[in-house]
Amino acid sequence: MTDRKTELAANLARVEERISAACATAGRKREEVTLIVVTKTYPASDVRLLAELGVRHVAENRDQEAAPKAAECADLPLIWHFVGQLQTNKVRSVFSYADVVQSVDRKRLVDALSRAAVGAARELGVLIQVALDADSSERGARGGVGPDGVERLAEDVAEAEGLRLDGLMTVAPLTGPYEGRPRAAFDRLVEISSRLRVAHPAATMVSAGMSSDLEEAVAAGATHVRVGTAVLGVRPRLR
Questions:
Q1: Cα gap 224→56, rounded to integer Å
Q2: Which is an annotated Pfam family here (predicted)?
Q3: In the chain, how long is the greatest CA-to-CA distance?
Q4: Cβ 5 vs Cβ 49: under 8 Å
Q5: What pTM does this model have?
Q6: Which of 218, 193, 191 lies closest to 205 in space, CA to CA?
Q7: What is the pLDDT along the chain (239 residues), one digit of tens a residue?
Q8: How far apart are CA 54 and CA 124, in angstroms?
């Protein structure tokens, strides 16, 4: 085993211990929580090592990095999640590799993704990104639609050809009433998810929590946690 693979294996084991412990504390089964490894800024060689170590879900947030990396790893049995803010002019590229887009926050983006799905004759999983720093249906500082806009946007996704409404995603806010309170933010997301499932029972995915707050996300009821630094190490500075 290479040094890098050994390092990744040890990091994955530590993250697995954290998730398992959080599930036990919350009275949940370990299989209720899926680990998504965020591989942004790291090379395709790391993605290959992660796949060898059993990782199946990976995430990226910048198309210009993700597209060539995904192409290089196209032979691997991976599920690719796009988690960054997405401009409509990047939709066709992102659609070429992403299985799930977690950052849908406006109807214009829904329409663009639907056109791409219809053109490619395949279905795309979609999560609505909820901005908990936005008091209304406006977009948040890090993307996302305010809680008041979730229901309308969910209808837009449900009515869009080629798209599958899988659930909700959030990023712990840096400002507003939930600043420094990730558990409260994730509780709020789960509350919004419960309401959403009344009209859309298949939208069961709740994506929340990162390296620093995955325990809070699991405690709140997240089904997916997005972990990068704790698995891959401190990220190189972007140029």
A1: 12
A2: Ala_racemase_N
A3: 51
A4: yes
A5: 0.95
A6: 193
A7: 789 999 999 999 999 999 999 999 999 999 999 999 999 999 999 999 999 999 999 999 999 999 999 999 999 999 999 999 999 999 999 999 999 999 999 999 999 999 999 999 999 999 999 999 866 556 666 789 999 999 999 999 999 999 999 999 999 988 888 999 999 999 999 999 999 999 999 999 999 999 999 999 999 999 999 999 999 998 766 54
A8: 24
Go through the chain and tell me how many residues it has: 239
Q: Give the per-residue SS3 of the chain.
A: CCHHHHHHHHHHHHHHHHHHHHHHHHCCCHHHCEEEEECCCCCHHHHHHHHHCCCCEEEECCHHHHHHHHHHCCCCCCEEEECCCCCHHHHHHHHCCCCEEEEECCHHHHHHHHHHHHHHCCCEEEEEEECCCCCCCCECECECECHHHHHHHHHHHHHCCCEEEEEEECCCCCCCCCCCCHHHHHHHHHHHHHHHHHHCCCCCEEECCCCCCHHHHHHHCCCEEEECHHHHCCCCCCC
How many CB atoms neighbour CB 152 within 10 A? 11
Retrieve residue 154's tokens: 């969910």
What token pair was written down for 67? 């597209």
